[in-house]
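User: My collaborator sent over this chain with a note saying "see what the structure looks like." That's all I know about it. Can you take a look?
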Amino acid sequence: MNKSDSPNPMTELDLKKLEVRVEELIRACNLLKDENKSLRTRQENLVAERATLIEKTELARAKVEAMITRLKAMESAP
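Assistant: Without extra context I'll predict from the sequence alone. Here is the result:
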């Protein structure tokens, strides 16, 4: 059996199409890797920002509660 007798010989055109498709997939993979890296960085920044905002909110809440306590103390003082 020689090469021309094989059931599905890959032609030069088939190989070129496959090569083009593989290159497209590599580009898509690289694009997704970059996007994933960017999204992870953004997520880390948002998590850090959220933690800062929570901390500031708790501090503000404590200050407001302290002011309310002082105001109530002033109301009840003779």
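A starting point for your reply to your collaborator: The helical segments are 12-76.
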